[in-house]
Fold this protein.
Amino acid sequence: MASFQDAFHKGLEAYDSADRARKEIAAVFDDCAKQVSAASGGAIVLSRESTSRVREEAAHAVVLGGFAVRESYQALMARLVSEPNSSGEELCEYKLAYHGYPVAIVYADVDEYCHDKQSLERALVELLGHPTTGGKLRRLMDLHAKRKSGGSREHAQANSDPNGNAE
């Protein structure tokens, strides 16, 4: 005979466990944001946001006169504190499992799955140290310096595409 009471209690415990994991994940992202803000002298703010893009297979349909189908996803964004409404720079896409972990982190040439707090922290450290991310953060810091000085001071760097890759 099925024990619905046991299943009921198991469901409550599963929810509580997933809620703790989601709060832990949020705390790791918040700590990352605080440290990036400190490292940038308060110039850069990181935020987790829901955004959308045209689905890849739908992009071909648009060319052929069809409709674009958009998909939503979560992204870690960086922008200047002085420009909170700017589009900013997308550092990575991330996705939480319903239970919290694993957390998928996707950017540039990296597709990583984090199964606990330590692996999520390592993944975010690697993200911040990646050349593509560094290029995005450099552009924001240069823009901050330019706006702060009121001049046209630019950081000397190679031309780069929007993904931070040298052309």
